[in-house]
Write a structure and sequence with these properties.
Number of strands: 5
Structural class: alpha+beta
CATH topology: Alpha-Beta Plaits
Largest sheet: 5 strands, antiparallel
Order of helices and strands: EHEEEHEH
Number of helices: 3
């Protein structure tokens, strides 16, 4: 069962900034909720060198309709030059929860 719901993810190098990104999106009704994962180690190549940093992942639950505005807001608010932005489709779930995501992601 395909749905209109997606999970969009980004990462950031500061727990306070992660909270700001999570709260800001929910406050603006760009997402119904946002989860902040505990700090983890990210290893990646940037500007020709391998980097290792602590990061926090923010996962937004939102609708496909709200996704473009959420993506734009995260891109302009985020402190990285190239922030991670990954969107995962939600292929099922409880009708009640999915309805809640739709209701809370709708502009008031």
């Amino acid at each position: 069962m395909s749905t209109n719901i997606v999970i969009a993810q980004t990462t950031i190098d500061n727990e306070t900034k992660a909270a700001e990104l999570a709260h800001g999106a929910v406050d603006r009704r760009l997402a119904a909720c946002a989860h902040i994962d505990p700090a983890f180690t990210a290893v990646y190549r940037w500007q020709g060198a391998v980097q290792q940093e602590r990061e926090w992942r923010i996962s937004y639950k939102t609708t496909r309709d709200r996704l473009p505005e959420l993506a734009e807001w995260v891109a302009t608010t985020h402190s990285y030059d190239v922030p991670e932005w990954i969107v995962l489709p939600v292929e099922g779930g409880s009708r009640e929860y999915l309805g809640w995501v739709v209701g809370e992601s709708t502009e008031s």
